[in-house]
Amino acid sequence: MFTQVKLPYAFAALEPHIDALTMETHYGKHHASYTANFNKAAEMAGFQDKDAVWILSNLDSVSDPAVRTALKNNGGGYYNHNLYFSQLSPNPAHEPAGQLAEKINSTFGSLENLKAELTKLASGQFGSGWAWLAANANGDIMISASPNQDNPISEKTGYIPILALDVWEHAYYLKYKNLRGDYLKSLFEVIDWNIITENYNAIIK
C-alpha cells in the first residue's frame, strides 16, 4: 500500500514562505487524494507489490488505457508530492555538499545559475506542472519541466528526480495569487539541500 510521506515538521513550520492553510490543503487533500487513487489504480492493474518508480517506468505494459492514465496521473501525483514535501524544512541547508555540489558547479557553473535556470523552467511551464533537478546512475544531472503530474520517470528520460518545484496553482495560490515567481523565490528558502544531496547519493553508483 502506498502512503504519503510523513512530514517531520508542522503545517505552520514553513511560514512565512509556505503558509499553514496551503500546507493543510496541499498535503491533507490534494496529496491524500492522489495517494488513495493511486492505490486503487495499482490494485486494478495488479501492481500492489511494485514500487512507484517501477510502475511509472512500465506504464506501457498496462493494456487498459483508463487504468494506464489513472496510474500515470495519480502515481505521478503521489510520487511527485512525496518528493516535494520531503525536501522542505524549516531549518534547511542552503547549499549542497560533496559530489552533488561539484556536479552542479561543473554542469551549471554555480548553484545560483542552477536555481536561476530551474526558476526559468518553472515560471515558463504553461498551466499546471513541475520543474525538476534529476540525476542518473552515472551521476549526471539535468533540469527539465513536465506538464500535469508527469515527471522524468514516466517520460522515460533515464533520470530520477532529486528536487521538485511544484507549480500547480494549489501549491501557491492562496498566498501568492498569480505571482508564481514570488512563490518560487520563497520556496528555495525552505528547500533543504542536505536532503537533495542525499537523494543524489542514493541514485549514483
Write the layout of secondary structure elements.
Elements: H1 20-45, H2 52-57, H3 65-86, H4 98-108, H5 111-124, E1 129-135, E2 141-147, E3 160-166, H6 173-176, H7 180-187, H8 193-203
Antiparallel strand pairs: 1-2, 1-3
Features:
three-stranded antiparallel β-sheet; Helix Hairpins; minor pseudopilin epsh fold; 205 residues; 2 domains; 10% strand
Question: Can you put this structure into words, describing what you see?
Answer:
With 205 residues, the chain is mainly alpha-helical. The protein has a three-stranded antiparallel β-sheet. α1 (20-45) runs antiparallel to α3. Helices cover 50% and strands 10% of the residues. The chain folds into two domains: 20-86, Helix Hairpins (Orthogonal Bundle), CATH 1.10.287.990; 98-203, Iron/manganese superoxide dismutase, C-terminal domain (minor pseudopilin epsh fold), CATH 3.55.40.20. It has helices at 20-45, 52-57, 65-86, 98-108, 111-124, 173-176, 180-187, 193-203; strands spanning 129-135, 141-147, 160-166. The protein contains eight helices and three strands. The protein is globular, with a radius of gyration of 16 Å.
Write a brief caption for the model.
The chain has 205 residues and is mostly helical. It contains eight helices and three strands, in the order αααααβββααα.
